[in-house]
Design brief:
about 725 residues; seven-stranded mixed beta sheet; transmembrane helix; Beta-lactam/transpept; membrane; transmembrane; PCN-bd_Tpept
Length: about 725
């Protein structure tokens, strides 16, 4: 019995253990269930986990945020032609990694390298052999390859041509870029805008010099954005709305530059620079009445399209360099003497040398011309004559006129880094030196401003290069720059008398400016030759001078002022005056010719011809005075190269794209700008030799051309 009782007790013990374990597990599961319910309830109500808002994260996961890039404003010439504008360029890369496969099994890597190489060689500046070498790198497991400069800065047209070949693995990255269609074209004045990346990884165009820098705030737009709610596949969810903020494009800046005159000036400056290899050169053509800059350039310069030459000099030497002007300063010495009532042109003096204290003022002809009148002394550019005039006026009067002409002050051009100049004016010899342009340093713009007082009958005008700033979003003018009078340093009578003396420099038998005579117009001129300062003294040698000329045409009532400087040229068989005249005369003649043409024509606006028949469009444009070039074999206009409403100048070339095959027109007589525009529109690989107007083309007129076709043109200046 006892054994039986013990066996029953031992059998009941496991049962109790199982029941206890079962209860424990039951309660544990209940507690876990309660915890999970509470946790999910907390998350559902609070919508946050570990301080992370799940609702916000879901919104981010299923909301596409897209930045709408604003366009940088365009810089235009005086006739509404773009001289700096935004464009999209592309960089190309090819994926080689065979693991790159799409969701639908699509192969996203290069499957036919031979075909890729053939297509790239057709449209890019790379050989098929080189393309294949790049596509077959020595390093195994290369994810992707690029093609150096050949695969960069690809135009939209070329990109589309490559894409039409449906090449697996070929991809493009869009990049912002600035287009300067005219190449070397007032490059330091217009400046550059380059792509910069900020800390957030966003890229944008930033002005780094010239007008691009000075007006960077106005030219820069404000990016927009759009938010779209999407499903897991990237499609917009039905019933949801887009949150859209429109991009605001940057303001457009209109300059006073005349493309035709600017192109000619660039050509003539390059011709002279090629001959003499000057250390530096500057030239500006200005409206004599208003101060508007019509053409301006410097040497060395650079091609804004290719950046070639940019490393030679970054400074805009029109405002960022100060120099001793030399004998062109005598214009203002003479004007001050006449205006102050001290001048007697018939009085005589002994030329050659003049002693002031223990110092001597020499003439450039140290032997002099004997005893001559002050009138003759000015025409001969006598330093001694000017020193006498300064002594007669007195240093206080002379300094008063220096101030009245606004030397040693900024012209407030708005261009970056403008200098004010300097003067040494304590000792009598220093005061006399300034009368013939030594011991005083000025800027190019200061000289231009002072010259307007003489050309504009005493009314001194501020030089300016911007006419207006327009908001393209509203088409309203937000800033207007009208001619501005900044002083009246001399009377109209004095200005006329000075111009008469400047005519003597050209037309008197003893004048030294005979090279500046022009057919059909009288010219008022003052030449200049100054030794180049090295800081403590003056350089010596035949190549140590700064030559200059200030010219006004027509002399009796000037419409144009031109000022040119040439520093340290290596003169050969031609004199400095002959070289400077070879720049001045053709540019002045072209300006006068344009002025005559303008009088006989009225301003015409670009009509809207897109969608019209080629016949009707051509007729409308011909009536407006434009030159029409049709690109394509279609019968209707698909696009026009000039925006509707733009002012057309006489003979301006307008391109009409009609679709179909394009036959290359005869380019003889075309300007560089027109050829560049054609190449851009058709995606041609253009090579330009020379400057001026087309005389030869490598592809015969009438030949069918397509994107990627090569074209070489030779340009020469017609005089």
């Amino acid at each position: 019995m006892k054994d039986s009782h013990e066996r029953q007790t031992m059998n009941k013990q496991p049962n109790r253990n199982r029941k206890s374990l079962g209860r424990f597990l039951f309660y544990a599961i209940c507690l876990l269930f309660i915890f999970i319910v509470c946790r999910f309830s907390y998350i559902a109500i609070g919508k946050s986990v570990q301080n992370v808002n799940l609702s916000s994260q879901a919104q981010k996961l299923y909301t596409a945020n897209e930045t709408l890039k604003a366009k940088r404003g365009t810089i235009y010439d005086a006739n509404g032609q773009a001289i700096a504008e935004d464009t999209s360029v592309y960089s190309l890369y090819v994926v080689l990694d065979k693991r790159q496969v799409g969701l639908n099994g699509e192969k996203l890597y290069a499957t036919n390298k031979e075909k890729i190489a053939t297509v790239l060689a057709k449209y890019l500046p790379i050989s098929r052999k080189q393309a294949l070498k790049t596509l077959n790198p020595s390093k195994k497991n290369t994810f992707q390859v690029e093609f150096g400069t050949a695969g960069q800065n690809i135009s939209l047209t070329t990109k589309q041509k490559i894409q039409k070949a449906h090449l697996s693995g070929v991809n493009f990255i869009q990049q912002e870029a600035r287009l300067y269609p005219n190449g070397i074209f007032a490059s330091h004045l217009v400046g550059l805008a380059e792509s910069k990346t900020n800390k957030a990884g966003e890229t944008s165009l930033i002005g780094t010099m010239g007008l691009e820098q000075a007006f960077n705030k106005q030219l820069t737009g404000t990016n927009g954005s759009q938010k779209i709610k999407k499903d897991m596949y990237g499609y917009q969810l039905p019933g949801t709305k887009q949150k859209y903020k429109k991009a605001k494009n940057g303001d457009n800046v209109y300059t006073t530059l005349d493309t035709r005159l600017q192109t000619l000036l660039e050509t003539e400056m390059s011709n002279v620079q090629d001959q003499v290899k000057a250390n530096s050169m500057n030239a500006v053509l200005m409206n004599a009445k208003t101060g508007a800059i019509l053409a301006a350039t410097q040497r060395p310069t650079f091609n804004a399209s290719t950046k070639a030459g940019l490393g030679q000099i970054w400074r805009n030497t029109l405002v960022q360099d100060a120099y001793e002007p030399g004998s062109t300063m005598k214009i203002f010495t003479l004007a001050s003497s006449i205006d102050s009532g001290n001048y007697n042109g018939n009085a005589t003096y002994q030329s050659g040398r003049y002693t002031i204290g223990t110092q001597t003022v020499p003439d450039w002809n140290t032997s002099g011309w004997g005893t001559i009148t002050y009138d003759k002394g000015f025409a001969l550019s006598s330093n001694v004559a000017m020193a006498h005039l300064e002594q007669q006026m007195g240093s206080k009067t002379w300094k008063k006129y220096i101030d009245r002409f606004h030397f040693l002050k900024s012209t407030h051009s708005g261009l970056p880094g403008e200098l004010t100049g300097s003067i040494a004016f304590k000792r009598p010899i220093e005061q006399a030196d300034t009368s013939f342009g030594q011991g005083i340093q000025v800027t190019f713009f200061q000289m231009l401003q002072a010259l307007t007082a003489v050309s504009n009958n005493g009314k001194m005008m501020k030089p300016y290069v911007i006419s207006k700033v327009v908001n393209p979003n509203t088409n309203k003018t937000v800033a207007k720059y009208d001619p501005k009078t900044v002083g009246n340093p001399i009377s109209a009578k004095t200005a006329k008398a000075v111009r008469k003396h400047m005519e003597d420099v050209v037309y008197k038998s003893y004048g030294i400016g005979g090279d500046y005579k022009m057919s059909g117009e009288r010219v008022a001129v003052k030449t200049g030759t100054a030794q180049v300062s090295n800081g403590s003294g003056y350089l010596s040698g035949d190549d140590s001078y700064l030559y200059s000329v200030a010219a006004m045409v027509p002399a009796s009532n000037p419409k144009y002022v031109m000022y040119i400087t040439m520093k340290q040229p290596h003169l050969g068989s031609k004199t400095a005056t002959q070289l400077l005249a070879s720049i001045m005369k053709p540019v002045m003649a072209r300006a006068l010719q344009e002025d005559a043409e303008t009088k006989n024509t009225t301003d015409a606006k670009m009509p809207a011809v897109t969608g019209k028949s080629v016949t009707k469009a051509t007729s409308a444009l011909t009536k407006a005075g434009a030159t029409v070039t049709t690109l394509g074999s279609g019968s209707k206009v698909l696009s026009q190269s000039v925006k509707t409403g733009t002012t057309l100048y006489k003979g301006q070339r307008v391109f009409l794209k009609t679709g179909g095959t394009v036959a290359l027109p005869s380019l003889t007589g075309w300007s560089k700008g027109d050829v560049v525009k054609l190449a851009q529109l058709e995606g041609l690989k253009l090579t330009v030799s020379g400057d001026g107007y087309v005389t030869k083309q490598s592809v015969k007129a009438g030949t069918t051309v397509g994107s990627g076709a090569g074209l070489t043109v030779t340009l020469k200046q017609n005089k």
